[in-house]
Automatic annotation (TrEMBL):
Protein's recorded name: carnitine O-palmitoyltransferase
Domain annotation Choline/carnitine acyltransferase: ranges: 173-741
Family: Belongs to the carnitine/choline acetyltransferase family.
Superkingdom of the organism of origin: Eukaryota
Membrane topology, from the record: Multi-pass membrane protein
MF terms (GO), sorted A to Z: carnitine O-palmitoyltransferase activity
PANTHER family (UniProt xref): CARNITINE O-ACYLTRANSFERASE, CARNITINE O-PALMITOYLTRANSFERASE
Chain's gene name: cpt1a2b
Catalytic reactions of this protein: (R)-carnitine + hexadecanoyl-CoA = O-hexadecanoyl-(R)-carnitine + CoA
Compartments, record wording: Mitochondrion outer membrane
Amino acid sequence: MAEAHQAVAFQFTITHEGIDLHLSYQALNQIYLSGLRSWKKRISRIKNRIIKGVYPASPSSWLFVVIAILATMYMQSDPSMGIITKIREHLPLSLSLSAQGQTVLSVLLFSTLLWLSLILALRFCLKLLLSYHQWMFELHGRISTKTKVWTLVRLLSSRKPLLYSYQTSLPHLPVPSIKDTLERYLESVKPLLDVAGFQRMTRLAAEFEKSLGNRLQKYLKLKALWATNYVSDWWEEYVYLRSRSPIMVNSNYYGMDFLYVTPTATQAARAGNTITALFLYRRKVNREELNPVFIPLCAAQCERMFNTTRTPGEETDVLQHWQDSEFVAVYHRGRYFRLWVYRAGRLLSPREIQYQIQRILDDPSPPSPGEDKLGALTAGNRMPWAQVRKQFFSSGVNKRSLDCIEKAAFFVTLDDQEEGMMGENPSVNLDRYAKSLLHGKCYDRWFDKSLSVVVYKNGKNGLNAEHSWADAPIVAHLWEFTLATDAFHLGYTADGNCRGEIEHSLPPPQRLSWDIPLQTHVSESLAVAQALADDVDCHVFPFREFGKGCIKKMKMSPDSFVQLALQLAYYRDRGTFCLTYEASMTRLFREGRTETVRSSSNESCAFVLALEVNPAPLPFLAAEKHQNLYRLAMTGSGIDRHLFCLYVVSKYLGVESPFLKEVLSEPWRLSTSQTPVQQMELFDLVNHPEFISLGGGFGPVADDGYGVSYIIMGEEMINFHVSCKHSCTETDSHKFGSQISQAMMDLMTLLNPDFKEATKANPDKQS
């Protein structure tokens, strides 16, 4: 009740002498400062809208145009070729303005129209340039004239852009032709099928093209004309939000802390800096101060990074996003808290947040009945969670507490375990660390939140991200900033505490209250989630023998090298090839998300088969093919999103396609993804090589397959995350990890025969 009394701005009592009014100036000052922050944000948003609206020009360029026109008019020259005179003749205010005033007003109107026309022309030119992607396919030293013209993008983008400045200039994702997509599909499955199987698929594809394909394509082209992106909304809806299975493990993914370094061993301090860094990043997103990269990419996914949750529905989930949130939801030992991080419009200092976190850690109160495992509802199947939410969380204290979690900027778990690469068996502990971030105890994360940050007892941290709102590169960019800001910008005192002053009058974090007569429902969801979590087999290992520096010396793309190694490792592990999923972004287009690179190609399979028989063949042809497939996927000529959308149209029309049904049911037994390092300037790995990120990973896509994530860190290390399921007797993450390491070594030895001898001479290089 003390907090409630402090929040009252005024009180009054009625006496025989009249009304006795008591004002709390401190509370009124808090209200004033909070309102001031809100208005500053509104003004900033209006300012950014204006700047974005005229990009690549600037608002000040309007004044330059006006002055230039007025100067030429002063010199008795009419640059408008009579248009200014026509405007002056039609001014409705001609009777109340002098002749000079009419001329100035006419010049202002003409200058504004000319300025707007120039902006439209510049934006049209920028859109044309951004629609050109052939520069990706050109060889070094053989640049065409069109590509030389394309470099004008630098000139048009010379003024510093805001985060969303390029949005309206980005091209729409094109719809590939049916013929091209089917040809590429058949080419991709040819090495995976026997002769009879390939002939059958060729026949099905031909029948589809002649009969149903063109009809579905017309609807898809109509959508492409109308919608900003013909894929993204259906991809979000049908691949993510309509899935009724658990999103834990199956959809959510994780990001890890530094490999070798833990900036502080104090849990509350690490939480204080981590939370501060995340809010500093949110501030940059809100102010649009994050600089787009040289190649303009769509930034639409950043809009729902914070203050977002996925709410369950019986048929489909819904993503809810709030404009702002000044608090985070915190879980510790079965209790939920609301922690305000703003006070009177001011972001609390890291030391103040640490102080508040420590209050939560020191709180001895036990969880209320059913509260401790409530988070399991977000880890189990979606249908039961939707029904329980509707029945027990639509009103009263449960609704208020659930609203606090769902409207929070993000979710924070103060874990009572210690994780990281530590102890006598660091490899096993890294695997346990990955599993902890992927699913935890199945009830101590809120998997519906866009971001769930985990801070462990020993100061290690990590995050779990919901997948429907954005893809891994967006979260990776956020996490890079968070780790770098925590370690290098905010820092810690000598005793491991956060820096900054403390206002001891801060009200304590608010304990959320629950009335939960649904322990049976929670137990059922927990049982489903626990079975899924127990089945996951994770293995994380740093590959230290060489990195991208050594690979580039062999004149090969590091990503192609790793993908070839994965193909070789899978063949040695299973004795066959499989459909391989590699995620590629399509953010060169507006609202673009991902496309699939089918990394298992005719060339890669031929290379692996030849290598197993004769260690002489070189992988350059297979690597170049992979690079070409990656470029096609990035530039809108992929296979899988087009086929997926054709399948969705067929479902809307109520028609069946044997070809599409078979294609969409094919399992991805090897699902891979590279975690991009986008801000290497934040990490000085030359002077501080110990500040290396572990990257992140995800669960297996197929029950009998592998999920492989990798991050190429610096010049000398590649970190791998491998996952599979214990229930499949043919998969083993540790065994497959060993196959990957050996395949990497064998490929490098093939490219550089002296490498093996150099490795023997430097045994410390080996892991």
